[in-house]
Every structure is written in structure tokens, then in C-alpha cells.
Specification:
Elements lengths: L1 H17 L3 E5 L6 H16 L3 E5 L4 H11 L4 E8 H9 L13 E17 L14 E3 L6 H13 L8 E3 L3 H10 L4 E6 L4 H12 L4 E3 L7 H9 L4 E6 L1 H4 L5 E13 L4 H13 L1 H7 L8 H7 L9 H9 L5
Parallel strand pairs: 1-2, 1-3, 5-6, 5-7
Antiparallel strand pairs: 3-10, 4-7, 4-8, 4-10, 9-10
């Protein structure tokens, strides 16, 4: 009898281990911070035994949110790395791809870092302000990405139509940086963490060629900036990139949106809590792996609480309450 009970206990334990939630983390394109952040996060979760985590390369925020909305099933949960503006319009249905089926099932876990709206060119192109993009070869980011949506909003604020470009490309960051270095592109938009490795490498490549990277500034008080901030009140803020980040001649003023991790509402509360615990107890490991994670913190996460229409995940709420950061 005793042996039978032991065997039953072992069977139950094995079943429990086999049913550990599988969390697929939607990241971004190679060369962007999402890709490295999501990969490092998955490694931390697996080593901590919080969940069975797997990072997947995607086109970024909207792809990730669509996966969360449509692919979560059974014991497999798709979590998304996303900009706050993308999460917002996917939740409300203002983004066309979510108009008929808003991603109402997303729940916030934690804040990652700010993503700067980079408008990258070189000193030799002569592009100094957004309006100088007329007649130039410009990439506005991958089709339907958060980068493209914010790039078009910046252009709208500056009174520039993409039709006035000599050529419009829609490239991910690594390809945009390569094209600019090779001289087949004059400028590209990228919304991502600071620093973004592809842009750091671009700066080094240009220096070897006797050129220098130039980030087009966007004055937070300008009409261009006001159009963007009005579209996403409280979600897009002024941000300055220090000159030592990309070896620019001066610090560069501009705008940044936040980045968050969201998971489906069906992810068990215990799993959400385990993810929070694993990430924030191994924050030094994450920051060593990804420079942008210096801005990942419980305090920054707590500041988002109640600021977004998207609810927090119960596991995240529990963890924040235990740390005394929310009531």
C-alpha cells in the first residue's frame, strides 16, 4: 500500500513537471534590442525553472501581439515584447489589424526600457532636419511595425509625405544600417532601445570610412514632436541620447516610447508571479546581457500601474504588492 502511494505521488509530481507552462516570447528582428532582450529573458526563466521559455524572432510589436491574441492555446502561452503605443492601439482596436478583434486578452507584466525614435543618417548626406528627407532614399521600417507607424507620424508632424522621397524602403534595423553604410540608403527610421547594436556597429563602420553617424534631432517643443505626443499622451516622452552612445558630435534630443512585456490573461497567476520573481531576482544577469535593461526596474513598472488601459497580470500585481510598490 505504501509503495503504491509513493508511486502515485511520483506520477502526480511527474505530471506536474510535464505540465509546466510553455511560454513563447515574441521578440523582434536580429540586431534590434527586442531580439537580445527576449533571448536573455528566456534563458533566465529556463535556468530559474519558472516556466519552459522559448524566444522566437518576429517583425516586432504588432507581430508579437497578434501571436499573443491568436496562438495562445492549451498549455502554450505567447507573451509579447511590445512598445506601449503598440500595446495601446492593439488593445483599443485603433490599429487596423486589431480593429475587428482587439487584443483585449493582453496583461502587463513589467516595464523594460524606453525605445528612442532614431532617425539615422550620416554627416556626408547633409540631412540635418526631418524636412531634409525630401528627395532622399529613406527606410521607414518594416511594414506594419511600430517603427513604421511612429516614423509616419513623425513625417506627418514635419509635413513630409513619403511620396516625396527619391526612394522608400521598408527595412529592419540591421538591413537599414547595412544599406546606409554601403551608400544605397540616405537615412532610416528605427524605434529601439539605446544603444541598438546595429547602430553602434554602423557608427564604427562609418568612422573607418571617414564619415560619422548623425541622428536627426527632434525638438520636444517642435510641432513634429507635439503631433506624436498628442497621438499617444503619456506614452511618448522627451528623451536625449548622450553623444558617447553612438559617437555623435553632440547629445541628441528626441522622443521615446516605452517597452513592456505582456502575456495573455489565461497565463496562470502562479506562472506570471514566477516570471516576475525570476526576472527581478536575476536583474544583474539581464543587465549584463542587454545594456538597455539598465532601465528595467520594479519602480518603472509600478509607475505604469493605472497609466495604461491594459490591466496588469494578477501574478505581476501580486509581486508588486509584496514589494510594497502598489496597493
Amino acid at each position: 500500500m505504501k509503495r503504491a502511494l509513493i508511486l502515485i505521488g511520483l506520477a502526480v509530481l511527474s505530471l506536474g513537471l510535464a505540465q509546466k507552462p510553455k511560454v513563447v516570447i515574441g521578440t523582434g528582428s536580429t540586431g534590434g534590442v527586442f531580439f537580445y532582450y527576449g533571448t536573455a529573458m528566456a534563458d533566465i526563466l529556463n535556468k530559474a525553472g519558472a516556466v519552459e521559455a522559448q524566444p522566437v524572432q518576429t517583425g516586432g510589436s504588432y507581430d508579437n501581439l497578434q501571436l499573443l491574441r491568436d496562438r495562445t492555446s492549451g498549455n502554450t502561452y505567447y507573451c509579447a515584447l511590445t512598445t506601449t503605443d503598440s500595446a495601446y492601439v492593439a488593445y483599443t482596436g485603433e490599429e487596423p489589424r486589431f480593429k475587428d478583434k482587439p487584443a483585449k486578452n493582453q496583461r502587463v507584466l513589467f516595464y523594460m526600457y524606453p525605445s528612442f525614435i532614431h532617425l539615422v543618417t550620416t554627416e556626408k548626406t547633409g540631412i540635418k532636419v526631418v524636412q531634409d528627407l525630401k528627395g532622399k532614399r529613406v527606410s521607414t521600417g518594416q511594414p506594419g511595425s511600430s517603427t513604421e507607424n511612429l516614423a509616419l507620424l513623425v513625417l506627418q508632424g514635419a509635413g513630409i509625405k513619403p511620396e516625396t522621397f527619391a526612394k522608400r524602403e521598408r527595412l529592419p534595423v540591421a538591413e537599414g544600417a547595412k544599406a546606409l553604410a554601403e551608400g544605397t540608403l540616405d537615412a532610416f527610421f528605427w524605434v529601439g532601445g539605446v544603444p541598438t547594436s546595429s547602430i553602434v556597429e554602423l557608427s564604427q563602420t562609418l568612422a573607418r570610412k571617414g564619415d560619422r553617424i548623425y541622428l536627426v534631432p527632434i525638438d520636444p517643443k517642435s510641432t513634429t514632436a507635439q503631433v506624436v505626443m498628442k497621438r499617444f499622451p503619456g506614452l511618448v516622452d522627451p528623451y536625449k541620447v548622450p553623444k558617447n552612445v553612438y559617437n555623435t558630435r553632440t547629445d541628441v534630443p528626441g522622443l521615446a516610447t516605452g517597452n513592456i512585456v505582456v502575456c495573455p490573461d489565461t497565463l496562470p497567476a502562479e506562472a506570471g508571479y514566477a516570471i516576475m520573481k525570476a526576472v527581478f531576482e536575476n536583474l544583474d544577469t539581464l543587465r549584463t546581457a542587454v545594456a538597455a535593461a539598465k532601465d528595467t526596474s520594479l519602480e518603472a513598472t509600478a509607475r505604469l500601474y493605472g497609466k495604461l488601459p491594459i490591466p496588469f497580470h494578477p501574478g505581476a500585481e501580486r509581486y508588486l504588492k509584496e514589494k510594497g510598490l502598489v496597493k
